[in-house]
Amino acid sequence: MLRAERRRRGDLVAAAVLVAVVLLGAGLIALLAPVSHTTSITAVPPLQAPADPPAVPAALTEAWRAPSAATSGPVAVGPAVVTGDGESVIGRDPLTGAERWSYRRDLPLCTVGSAWNMALAVFRNGEYCSEVTALQPDTGARGPQRNSDVRPDTRLLDDGYLVTATGSDHLETWRSDLVKTQEYGALRADLQPDTQPRPQCRHTSVAVTSGRVAVVERCPKEPGDRLTVLHPDGDESEKPVQEFSTVLQSAGTRVVAVTSSDSGAREAILMPNPPRLSIRGAGGAETAVYPLALPPEDLAGDPPGEVVPTFSVPGAVLWWTGSSTIALDSTDLHPLWTLPGALGPGTVMAGTPLIPVPNAQLVVNPATGAVVRAIPVDRGAYQGPVSTAALGPILLEQRGPTLVALH
User: Fold this and answer.
1) Stated pTM of the model
2) What residues make up the domain containing 401?
3) Which residues contact 193 (CB under 8 A, 6 or more apart)?
C-alpha cells in the first residue's frame, strides 16, 4: 500500500512564491495594459443628428466654443461634433456643445479625424503617434484599434474607402478595420530591407483620392521635387505599389489635388517661380499649365501636416492657397474661379458653398464663384486661418486651437 505523499515546508513555500509571481505578473500586465490607463464614458441615450436646414441662415451668432488643439479642422461625424485637446477626445451635442461622451488616455493626442462614419483618435506614445482608436460617433464606444508608426505631425486623409496618415518621412494607409494596407518612406524597424524605394526622402505634401495617393518628395541630390503616385490597397503593406515616380522641374512644389476619373487620372501640382498650376497625366507627364497670381507668402515653406487645405464640393475642389480660394474642376483640375481674401477653403451648408473671409462668411455661386451675399461673423481679435464644416443648422469654425459653433 502506497503512503500518502507528504508536503514538505519547502514545497509549500515554493508554491506560495510561484502563486505570488503569477499574481504579480498578472497585476503588472493589467497595470501596463492600455485599458488601465483609459477612461471611456459613453453616451446614453445615443446622440441624434439634427435636421439639415432648408437654407443657409440669414445671420450667424456664436452658440458655443470648446478647446480643440488636436484637430486641424472641425470634426463633424455622424451626429456628433468631436473635439480633441490634451489627452481627451469629446463627443459633443452639435446644438449646445454639451459633452455627451468622452475618451481619455494618459497620453497626449496627436490628431483627431474621421472616416467610415467613425471618429479616429491618434495618441502619442514616446517618439511616435502609435496608439490609434476608432470611436462610434453617437455613443463614443470603442471600435477597432491599432499600433502604428505615424509621426507627430500627422494628418488623416479620408478617400472614402481608406485613410492615409501623413508624415514628414513616413505615411501609412489603413482600411476600416484599421488593418494597414500600405506604408511608405522610412521604417522604424526595417524587417525586409530594400522594400522601400526612397526611405531617405522628405515628404512635403500628400493628397488622396479613391485608389490613389500622391506624395511630393524632396530627395537628396535630385534637382527638383519628386512626384510619386501610389496604389494604397496592396497585398503586402510593407511593399508599396507605385503607379509612377518622376522628378519635377523645380523644388518648393505642392500636390494640391489628385483624381481617378474615368477620363484619366490627374494630379494638380503648385509650381513656383513663376506661380502656376501644373496638371499631370499618365506617368506624371504635364498636360496643361495655368498661371496663378499668388503672393510669395502663399508659396513659402511646406504646408502644415504635409496637406494643402482643400474641400470637395459637387463638381469642384475648393483649394485655399493662403490668400485666396480657388475652385478646381473635379475632373481635369483646371481652375474654374478664384475668390481673393479667403481665410480657408470653405464648406457646404444646405447645399451651398460658404467661404470664410475677414468678419464674414460668403455665400457663393458654386459654378462661377460670384458672391451671393455676406453673413457677418464676429471673430473678435482672431485673424488667422479658418477651417469650416457644417452639421445640421450649425456652422463650425476652427480658429487655431479653438472650435467655435455658429447658428
Assistant:
1) 0.90
2) 35-153+385-407
3) none
